[in-house]
Amino acid sequence: MKSKAFLSESKKILVTGGAGFVGSTLADELVKLGHQVTVLDNLVTGKREYLNPQAKFYKVDICSDEVSRIFSQEAFDLVFHLAAQIDVRKSVEDPIFDNKVNVFGSLNILKNCLENKVEKIFFSSTGGAVYGDASEIPTTEKFLPSPICPYGIHKLTFEKYLNYYYQVYGQKYLTLRPANIYGPRQYNGGEAGVISIFVDNTVNKRRCIISGDGTQTRDFVYVDDIVQAFLKAMYSNFVGEINIGTGRETNLLEVVKAIETALGNDIEKVHGPARPGEQMRSCLDAKRAKEILHWKAQVDLKTGIKKTIEWSKNKKHPPDL
After folding, report:
1. What values do phi and psi take at 289, rounded to 5?
2. Beta carbons within 10 angstroms of residue 111's beta carbon
3. Model pTM?
4. Closest to 127 in 3D by CA, of 179, 92, 167, 170
5. Which residues pair with 222 in a beta bridge?
6. What are the φ/ψ torsions at residue 272 (nearest 5 degrees)?
7. How far is CA 198 from the centre of its chain?
8. Which residues make beta-bridge pairs with 174?
9. φ and ψ at 287, to 5 degrees?
């Protein structure tokens, strides 16, 4: 852990993807802690409404040459890199575009971190797609990743670049591998995972389509818990990869049942075809997060779904920009 002096010190921090679901929630907390926060987002899936008014904002794509000027001008101490193409289905349909954003765009951020002497970069990878159909459940960081979709392949590729930059140039980093994140600000049509899609469809009286037979499992972690992991990561000297999950498997049929229980009524649902590139089981061992970051998920699925339903009922989804 860093010293108490570091804990109280205000830092100049960049959050890429800071108008998105997780990024905006993280930016809000960093501002509350007194840091000088800058957000970089192209607003393709991020929403202007989610931007913290106290954060400086650049509407810029991470692939843009403009990134270099911003880094040089702002002189960031720390960088949280969350901007990404996050849709597994889109990565399967267009792996070249996914590679452009998640590898080349991320390399653009990393290159500028090194050139501008950023103390450390914190990367949001994926704890589900990076491992593929793991034979070890819950999956530890020691398990050899074998992603089965372009999204997972490209996230893993950038993880390797981070390690390369650390080994060769000394650029410090910490990679978080989150499980399936859900919660407020995740919305259908943008950065939505299955829980938010089902909640959004139900609240708006649309039917829910269960891919395959619904027995595929995921490790669902609430957005506030993910943000707390990033905040704790700030104060760690650790370099490497850390899983962020609950260690509990939940299948899609159980998710539907939990939503129905929270609502007090059945939801309209049908089964559709299984999606290519999506594994059957995913669940993360988070012992390393507990040992190194002193982090453990606090919000159970029942509570998290209730909070997500409440947000979806009371919040109009911001328009696409």
Report:
1. -65, -40
2. 16
3. 0.92
4. 179
5. 182
6. -120, 180
7. 19
8. 122, 240
9. -65, -40
Would you put residue 83 in left (φ > 0), alpha (ψ -120 to 50) or beta? beta
Three-state SS letters, 223-282:
HHHHHHHHHHHCCCCCCEEEEECCCCCEEHHHHHHHHHHHHCCCCCEEEECCCCCCCCCC
Neighbours of 5 (CB within 10 A): 7
d(CA 134, CA 60): 36
Residue 171 has φ and ψ, to the nearest 5°, of -75, 115
Average pLDDT over residues 143-167: 96
Which CATH architecture group holds 12-182+220-246+285-298?
A: 3-Layer(aba) Sandwich (3.40)
Determine the Cα angle at 222 with ends 29 and 274, to 5°: 135
Other CB atoms within 10 A of residue 144 CB: 9
* Token duo for residue 272: 């559709």
Whether residue 26 contacts residue 15, with contact meaning beta carbons closer than 8 Å, is answered with yes
- 209 by DSSP, 3-state: which? strand
Return the percent helix, strand and coil in the chain, to nearest 5: 40, 15, 45
Residues in Cβ contact with 144 at an 8 Å cutoff, skipping those fewer than 6 apart: none
User: Token pair of 227, please?
Assistant: 């943000």
Among 33-37, 76-80, 259-263, which is the least confidently predicted range?
259-263
Query: Tokens 């989610």 belong to which residue?
Result: 50
Which structure tokens are listed for 8? 């109280």
Note whether 98 and 150 are within 8 A (CB). yes
Tokens at 191, concatenated: 């950065």
Q: Phi and psi of 119, rounded to 5°?
A: -60, -45
Active site residues: 151
Q: Are 171 and 116 in contact (CB under 8 A)?
A: no
User: How far apart (Å, rounded) are the C-alpha atoms in residues 102 and 94?
Assistant: 12
Q: How far apart are CA 64 and CA 189, in angstroms?
A: 25
- pLDDT, tens digit (0-9, with 9 covering 90-100), for 290-319: 999 999 999 999 999 999 999 998 875 444
C-alpha dist (Å) from residue 71 to 77, 79, 163, 166, 282: 10, 10, 21, 19, 36
